[in-house]
Amino acid sequence: MILRTIATVILWGLLGIIVYGLKEPGAMWILNLCATLTLFEVYTILGRIGFAANRITGLVTGACMIPIAFYFPGAGIDALAVGALFSSAACVVFPQDQRGLYVKRLLPTFFGLLFVTFLLHYFVRILRIVESPADPQALGFGLFFCLWIVFVAKFSDIGALLVGKTIGRTKMAPSISPGKTVEGLLGGLGASAGIGALIPWLAENHLSHLFDFGAWSLDPSQGACWGLVIGLVSVIGDLIASVLKRLAGMKDSGGSIPGIGGLLDLTDSLILSAPAGYFIILLIHP
């Protein structure tokens, strides 16, 4: 538990520093790398369940979707549609004895693209809905809000882990994730609300020289309320990933990150948080 908490804080802290230094383009490429590696792990999990995907087709489409959405606003969904078109049309070039197998693999291929890349690409849509800051050295509201979502979602994980291990007694979803408890859920939501309020307060009162929000704003009370929403959907995303891993007989999606597991174990709470954050920013649009 301690190793997992420390690894999570250090990793996301480093990513936050890198993103602040490289601004929006750096954030986009980090997101694209994480999304593509997560998609690879999801395809591996689906294969172990018995739903093998057309990996190359899916990974190439997924790896193109986020950069296209960033550099050509609004075109990310078009990239997904084009990938789906060519993936489906490719079945005609296969010999008859292989065609059935290829067609059967289309469904898990599209599921992975929609569940991972499409949902995570909403971070890019958040970046693009907000105008760039007048000061190129400052952090704009779009990137700030993306980082706010990440920290709120991950502190939900950390709060649930610490509270659940300490006082957790009531099982929340024993058939899906036996270690999760109702007490842990409440602790995670409390952590989400707390960090959701703390970050805007720090940005407004102590770190204002680092940011240029223009007409946008997020006050601490809003941060606490919307933090609860992000915390809740992050738990749902975590449970969906747990269902997939449990069906595949896996505890972690991989072993690439010491103390955490694989990339899906790192991004599962963000998969639903990204679209939720996008709809939140539409609601608080000035």
Task: Summarize this entry quickly.
The protein is 73% helix and 4% strand.
Keyphrases for this structure?
single chain, 286 residues, mainly alpha, two-stranded parallel sheet, two-stranded antiparallel ribbon, globular
Structure explained in plain terms:
The protein is mainly α and 286 residues long. Helices cover 73% and strands 4% of the residues. It has 11 helices and 4 strands. The chain has helices spanning 2-49, 55-71, 76-89, 96-104, 106-120, 122-129, 141-167, 182-205, 220-247, 263-271, 273-283, and strands spanning 139-140, 171-173, 177-181, 211-212. A hairpin with a 3-residue loop joins strand 2 and strand 3. The mean pLDDT is 85.
Q: In terms of topology, how is this protein built?
A:
Layout: H1 2-49, H2 55-71, H3 76-89, H4 96-104, H5 106-120, H6 122-129, E1 139-140, H7 141-167, E2 171-173, E3 177-181, H8 182-205, E4 211-212, H9 220-247, H10 263-271, H11 273-283
Parallel strand pairs: 1-4
Antiparallel strand pairs: 2-3
Helix pairs in contact: 1-2, 1-5, 1-7, 1-10, 2-3, 2-5, 3-5, 6-7, 6-11, 7-8, 7-9, 7-11, 8-9, 9-10, 9-11
